[in-house]
Amino acid sequence: MNYHPFLILLLLVFVTNLDVGFTKTHHSNTTCSENDQKALIEFKNGLIDNSNRLSSWTGQNCCKWDGVFCDEKTGNVVKIDLHYKNYLLDGEYPQRVFDNHAKNFLGGELSPSLVKLKHLSYLDLSYNYFSSIQIPPFFGLLMNLRFLNLSCAGFGGYIPKNLGNLSRLEHLYLGGCYGYVIGPGNDFRVDSLSWISKFSSLKFFDLSQLVIEDTKDLWNSINMLPSLLSLNLEGCYLNILPSFTQVNFTSLSSLNIHHNAIGMSFENSSIIPPWFSNLTRLMNLDLGQNNFDDPTNVLEKLSSLRVLDVSNNGFGDSLLSSLSKLNNLVYLDLLGNDIHFSSLHLLGNLTSLSVLKLRYNVLKGLIPEGLTSIFCRLSVLDLSDNEISGLLPTFIRDPSSCLENRLKELYMGNTKFSDFFPEGMSMHKNLEVIDSTNSLLYGEIPSSISKLSNLRFLRISNNKLNGSIPSSIGQLSNLEELDISENLFTGIVSELHFAKLSKLMKLHLSKNKNLVLNVSSNWYPTFQVKEIGMTSVNVGPNFPQWLQKQSILDTLIMSDANITDMIPNWLSNITLFMTTLDLSVNKLVGGISVLCDAQFLKLIDLSKNLNLEELRSLNLADNSLEGEIPSSLGDLTIRFLHLQKNNLQGKIPLSFQNLTWLERLDLGENKLKDVFPTWIGEKLQSLELLRLNSNQFYGVIPLELCQISSLCWLNLAGNNLYGTIPSCFGNFSCGTFRGPGEVFGQRVESFMKGIPLEYVGEQILLLRILDLSENKLVGGIPKELTKLVYLQYLNLSRNSLNGSIPKKIGDLKQLESLDLSHNKLSGSIPQSLASLNYLSYMNLSYNNFSGPIPTGNQLQSLDDQSFYVGNPRLCGILIKKSCNGNGTSHVNEQTPQGDDHDQDVDEHKWFYAGIAPGFCVGFLGVLFILYKTRNRGVVHVFQCMARRL
């Protein structure tokens, strides 16, 4: 979101006035009541405070606690302000800000003890993270609240309607954060907003980023708020504005409906509705990123407007005639509206205009000199992303041509200006921003640039600037960003170039091939930067020692920097919270274990380091790496590659065919999507471990995979593979994992024995696994799999396999875990399973097995009935379901086919063959007892039994 400075100033005035009205400092001698003190302690106990922000909440006088304010006369707690103050430090990368600041957010549960604070009128919990919990209903009992701010605090679910009970509210902020994929952006939904109509005193209302399910209900409720001054509905997925006949919120001074879908549906009107004309007190209006196409006469009647954003609507030149009467306009954003130079003269009457944004319009050719009088009055001018060409206009090259020299920010990137970097630029004494990225500027940077003492951002990358960089640039003590990359600069950059740059946050020198960074080994700059780009700059031969003092570094790009050195151990200190690291195309040596503790690393490239030929193991698992796998990794002579549990996308690079020495390839749990590569089996025949699970591979399992006879661990689970299981899998001979001394730090996870299990270091050497679960495989279980006598874990669950279990499955003598659940298997469960002495987990649920469950040995210990649920034709002691007289269940079954049918017939033959001899022996035994005892009672019992038979 672009925060308009004038709107922020306006809001600050209102909030400041409100704050003075009812809050007191906690530096007085006021003492809080015991009741309030206890209530606050209960509230604190429910919170998660990892950074100890509430460490001052001790002692008896809560009026002195941070964030707690008391009335000076009564000692009652009237205000709690726990918003996180440092959150919006870097609006360009909101997700990165969340990652870097997450440890400082308050979270946990909100205690209803707040209700005991009877005089609480101000509550601010914004910019924290409460993990999508719903706003507690007890908030509706805080009857004295006049200020409630829950924006950007990570709440979720539906907003409780009983907030409507807070009839005294003047400020209500429920908006979300802008630009967050995860993190503390609110996940609110609103099904009904009728409760809003009760807020007769409400002045400031923010519902931005909320999903509003009933737009009509929203506007009808808002129309009942006569005191409303500011309304923020940015990003609420609104698709229509109401057609009011009467507007009751005419006191409105700020309206933001930026980034909705108004006018984007064919049946909806895309004109600004006439009732806007009644908002005569409106000072700030944001209509940006909608689809209005006709300004009509409405805008010209809003004579109080000072800030207007109509970006990305496509109004066209006709808009400017409507704006020409807005004499109070200070800020105007016309981005993306098909504006031509020929109509800009209509803005000549806007004598108060200070900010003009013309980015992404259809401005072509030379800037007409007739516009000089307009541009000379501006403090901010944005001409970026247009087809403007020729020399820079006179008012830029020579500010003395303007009566007043107001220019503070100048944006002209992605244009076709072809001119020297003007010497006269240094005469713009107030200049804070120069952005001429990707233009056609040439020549040298004048040494007089040091006169721009207010300069904060110098962005002149991707031009044709040459010569040496003047050391006077080091005198720009307010400089926060220096980007001179992709030019033709030569010479040496020394310590003098950074002499007074203590505020520098971003440093980009990349792609100036003849530029040399030459600083002493004991030099440590005064700045702390977030970003450093030095690709194709001569930084080496030593690894820069000064980097080790950069404690907030987020991005380090130092590719092709002529470094021939060891990777220093201290690198782990600066990569701890780093998201991007590129040290490729150097001559680095040594291990990369220093990167193991990096918690947020999303992109890393160490490829094409000639002295990394000895690198044998690369483990970047369980980070947040994004994008595609660098094809340059295929240039390494690596044996172990672990990239699992990241966010990698795309395909496996074809260059991986060169990794013929690779023994372990783990790409599991990413977002890779491709047809299953046949070349893996043809080229990577040294593989012992292959994990591609939990990706989006599709197609049949290629027979070429069977060429890797050394495979001991194959996990293809959780993909979209179809077809049958290759019978040639029975040819995997496995053997013994090699390289026991090189498994340090390696971790592999597999879902076995019904739970995810992690194996570390040399534990990996002991495992033999085949996991094809959660795919779309069909056909039978190949009987050839019973040749894998080394196998310990077999998981074929959640496919569509049919047929029966191979009767020789008992040959898998080492089997510890067997999962065949959620298939379409049928037939009997082979008795040979009872011979598996190591079997500790077996799941056969949700198939169509029938007959008795075998007993004996380890099977007796597997007495969990859930292992057999979903097989209605099974019977036996383990599931407490009796079998019928011939040893099968009572349910009629279809005759099974193949080997297992023969097994069933053989079992039945032996069953019936054993009945006759058993009966005869038993009968003779009874007769013998009768003869010996001659007991009439026994004879009587026998006679009764005979009659029943």
UniProtKB/TrEMBL annotation:
- The Disease resistance R13L4/SHOC-2-like LRR domain sits at 766-863
- Family matches, as InterPro entries: Leu-rich_rpt (IPR001611), Leu-rich_rpt_typical-subtyp (IPR003591), LRR_dom_sf (IPR032675), LRR_N_plant-typ (IPR013210), LRR_R13L4/SHOC2-like (IPR055414), RLP23-like (IPR046956)
State if tRNA-binding is listed as a keyword.
no
What is the annotated localization of this protein? Cell membrane
- Membrane topology according to the record: Single-pass type I membrane protein
Q: Principal place where this protein is found?
A: membrane
State which residue ranges cross the membrane. Answer: 910-931
Q: Where is the signal peptide?
A: 1-23
SMART domains xref list: LRR_SD22, LRR_TYP
Family per UniProt?
Answer: Belongs to the RLP family.
Query: What is the official name of this protein in its record?
Result: Leucine-rich repeat-containing N-terminal plant-type domain-containing protein
Q: Which organism is it from?
A: Solanum commersonii (Commerson's wild potato)
